[in-house]
Amino acid sequence: MTMLRGIHHVAVICSDYAVSKAFYVDTLGLSVIAEHYRQARDSWKLDLALPDGTQIELFSFPDAPPRPSWPEARGLRHLAFAVDDLDRVCAALAARGVTLEPVRVDPYTGRRFVFFSDPDGLPLELYAGAEA
Fold first, then answer.
1. Cβ(44)–Cβ(125) under 8 Å?
2. What pTM value is reported for the model?
3. In whole angstroms, what separates CA 43 from the centre of its chain?
4. What is the DSSP letter of 100?
């Protein structure tokens, strides 16, 4: 019996809130659900939505340590976004100044994918033809 029915959200901690907010909202096109400044923690929390309802929580914390290594640190390796037209999305991101690695093909699924990074170097992936 499967107890889980999907991913509700992924939490990301950033070093520069304004830069990361612009990246996720303006560059990637995620919708803002809510934004809160938590004075007791000197921290912003921004709730963002993808079209399928999955959310990304963007946090800022003072003096958060950097990611220890890229991309093979323990824990979350990368965040992958499903896209219908990989070439169109790659072109749109490149036009917005995002540097993308060369497109590769998954040897097991035959699907095309490409990696890029958020402003803090978090590895992000676009995965073509995957059901969202």
1. no
2. 0.86
3. 19
4. B
